[in-house]
Amino acid sequence: MIRGRVWKFGDDVDTDVIIPAKYLRSVDQSVWPKHVLEGIDPAFSSKVKPGDIIVAGKNFGCGSSREQAALAIKWAGIAAVVAESFARIFFRNAINNGLPLIEAKGISGMVEEGEMIEIDLDRGIVKTPRGDVKSAPLPPFLQEILRSGGLVEYYKLQSKLNQG
After folding, report:
1. What is the pLDDT of residues 102-113, one digit of tens each?
2. With bands split at pLDDT 50, 70 and 90, how would you rate the model's confidence at 128?
């Protein structure tokens, strides 16, 4: 179960506003979370707290295929992203990097910024102050990747299990 405070965004949040390209040149990856979502809210990184949750509209993560967008969100301490829909490449980049996502139709109208919500990834349920939003749960394989901390960690664990 993931419980956190909501940061609400609209439709078509693209990877250029999640992490602007000018910060991708830095070899210091700690720069990314300091600038996450500054294209929409320049002060976002100073307000977000570990465990917070992003709730968004349709097509979250559209734009380029940069995996740094998912990493910037994760490294900023965001516990999960709930959206009406995700760009497919962002969705896979997020799962591969251990950032939980849930696609929940109707979520935008069920929460306001600052409210607390709970996400049950196993059952595909988002509990909001206005009621539950049901979604198809992530397939067990994707849930295993998330529990492992991402695809690389999943394969390291599988390698150890296969050797032992």
Report:
1. 999 999 999 999
2. very high
Alpha-carbon gap, residue 154 to 142, rounded angstroms: 10
Q: Which residues pair with 15 in a beta bridge?
A: none
Helix (H, G, I), strand (E, B) or coil at 67: coil
The pTM of the full predicted model, rounded to 2 decimals, is 0.94
Torsion sign, CA atoms 33, 38, 43, 44: negative
Residue-range domain boundaries for the chain:
2-163
Mean pLDDT of 122-151: 95
Strand spans (E) along the chain: 2-8, 53-56, 80-83, 101-103, 116-120, 125-128, 131-134
2-163, what's its fold?
Aconitase; domain 4 (3.20.19)
